[in-house]
Amino acid sequence: MKLTAIHPKLPMRNKSITRDFYLHKLGFSLCGTADYEGYLMLKKDDIEIHFFEFPALPPEENYGMVYIRTDDIDRLYQSFQENSVAIHPNGQLETKPWGQREFSILDPDSNLLTFGADG
């Protein structure tokens, strides 16, 4: 037996804002054609992120985080810059002491997305 995938569930305040950000800024697509009330499933390449509606979420109190590995961190970073995706002020692209090249962004609900690749 082995684990084969993980699909984190993050909070969202507004489904249409979250969907628009991930589809148009980050290049994700919808998973399937069903539209579930208060729930959103998005994918890009081999990953999925699911979102549950939490309209009363104070963004400054959101601790949602996910770490996403990529095989070309520099190209991904460049594509986000070209799409005017704000890079987290403390998450600029750099090689960390543990050898990973990483950068981070916040989505519209302050979920922290950190992208990393082997240095």
* Main pleated sheet: 4 strands, mixed
Distance between the termini: 31 Å
State the strand order across the main sheet: 1-4-3-2
Helix content: 10-25%
What is the element string, with H for helices and E for strands? EHEEEEHEEE
Judged by helices, strands and strand pairing, the structural class is: alpha/beta
How many helices? The count is 2
The parts where pLDDT drops under 50 for at least 5 residues are none
Shape: globular
Rg on CA atoms, Å? 14 Å
**Overall pLDDT confidence:** 95
Percent of residues in beta strands: 25-35%
How many β-strands, per DSSP? 8
Give a written overview of the molecule.
18% of the residues lie in helices and 34% in strands. The chain has helices at residues 15-25, 73-82, and strands spanning 9-12, 29-30, 39-44, 47-53, 65-69, 94-95, 100-106, 112-118. The chain is of the alpha/beta class. It contains two helices and eight strands; from the N terminus they run βαββββαβββ. The protein is globular, with a radius of gyration of 14 Å.
